[in-house]
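Let's practice the habit of predicting before peeking. Look at the sequence and jot down your guess about where helices and strands might fall. Then scroll down.
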Amino acid sequence: MSVRLRLRDFLAPGHSCHFARTTVRHAPRLSPHRHDFHELFWVESGDGWYVLDGRRHALATGTLVLVHAEDEHAFDAVPGHDWVLANLAFAVGEWDALRRRCFPDHDAFARDQQRIIALGPTGHALLAAGAAELDDGARDRAALDRFLLNVLHFARIRAAAPAVPDWLQRALDGIREPAAFRRGPAAFVALAGLSPEHVARETRRLLGCTPTDLVNDARMTWAKRQFAAGGDILGTCLDCGVENVGHFYRLFRLATGTTPDRWRRRQQAIIGGMAPDR
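Done guessing? Here is the structure:
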């Protein structure tokens, strides 16, 4: 039997939302629950399972999920493969008020909508930018509205995007392997099996980004996993196929909104059950 979580148990006085990160580990028994609030979360690093109304959905880094208050849901991980999610919780009334003003013809949280959305590198960077403001302590209505407007507008575009062709999906899957992303965009083109010009043009049309963006997203996703496992910055930089440490720092900040040093401290805090460094 599921439990119902209450927003008042999480929300600090004067705040309009609650923001947190959680490391999901495999558990012998799931803990299904519902809310009296809406929530959205995204996978910051790793891959895992989201169980919605008894059905399992595989999630990858960069996937955004919108959770309706009545959704019975739980999380799970493959044994030995933890993953990290960031979640934002807020009152149903906060969303209703924003929707009436800005999305009068569309309720993104309605239970008949597509609410598990792969955002891709551009959307992942957008989430990171919004999370950086939340990390700095912004919890007022303006910060909540700003985050929801940016992310849900992009998510709506992505949900309506045309289907990805087989050659592009093959390249997207293959570039996640270290042996591929270390070789850079040329590996993405080789995986696609088409001309560089066609791959670049269609990738931008269908996904709104370039093959280089996708390679760098795969590199930074892998880097976050290495840092979560205790990897050092220089070794991880070189293992990603990035020869310049300064460039690695710029890519990592673009992908996460923070530096590798701060990310590593935050992961150690999450794993240790302490408040992350600000």
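How did you do? The chain has two domains: 3-159, 166-272.
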